[in-house]
């Protein structure tokens, strides 16, 4: 494992050397290495969780659950590697009678992109950090990863990296497959290094945009996959509130207050009928114990943004919440839930539209007949999620179509916090939710760290194993045989 004392160039060179060896590593070897990490981290759960609690203030149950999620995520990507569908292998047989003239033998498949730089997240010290989803996806694709540790949990990052690197190398992957660097300047310098071929980031819009611009301004620009933030609007129909009002209130409070609201999927704006009658139920559900925020900087930013929201015209408090700063500058908070009428919010939405990272949400109380689809199209650009609460008989098709244009995940009768680690999951969305779209959760996340290469009339000894007719890796191959081009389209219509 590389430490801060090593020059950036040495770290990059080590990763580049590892990349050449990793590219030729069989899928079964990479998969076993990912499983080795998935075994190693939970084996040290007591040590790692204790470090996480001390450095982040997150609760033990939350951290243990997140560590389990991280291990499951690694195992999922191990299965993805062995399956091989992500390689998207296509083989066009040579065809002297091709419709446009003789066709050569053409074979293509995805190959590793090269060394990947991953900026670890502060609010998910396991699942989006050293051994989290971005790292798992890049390793699964056959790339070495350099992780820039988050300053909010440096000791946890160092210990996780040491355990993960040892597990990877013990399973047969080359030295330098996983390395760690620390410091803002070091991260920027590594992002500019010509041997880095892609980067990932989970964090603020401001920080992500700063890094994305650096990646784009390089002499050879690289893809920068940033997950930057989201308001995650929720829309509830009158019938849904009438049928499930108390359940809605409890779910809202739990989603806003969990982990002190420090989740990229926390619902920030909730549109619901103006006669919802849920003030008392929401206030009661939000009356939970205080929770420490991640660090003093985040607490200060939350305090400032919360004050601006509560001072905006027409905002009233339902659950006032609290903010307490201790002698170390750490912020301790409880959920704040406010409300504003749509006719007050709509003319001047800017004061309330920006994400507020912390346990606060705003109910936008809307009159009967409000066109939620039009509101979504008009007020929002790109979101990680849009949630729709409906009841049988509600026509929400226009809202759902609008949501699909604005978000990477559309969910029904639930809350966006809690992102399932499953093959079909999408955790991304149009700008400004992410910089380049894609997903950082689910098996499709691997697609960010590969690139397609085609080989024309190549001899077998020059082809990657996945493209050979013998198919030693036993991966799916989409084959276009000779002769089929003369019948293309005949069976359609």
TrEMBL record:
The entry's keywords: Oxidoreductase
MF-aspect GO terms: oxidoreductase activity, acting on the aldehyde or oxo group of donors, NAD or NADP as acceptor
Record-linked InterPro entries: Ald_DH/histidinol_DH, Ald_DH_C, Ald_DH_N, Aldehyde_DH_dom, Aldehyde_DH_Superfamily
Domain (Aldehyde dehydrogenase): residue spans on this chain: 7-365
The name this protein goes by in its record: NADP-dependent aldehyde dehydrogenase
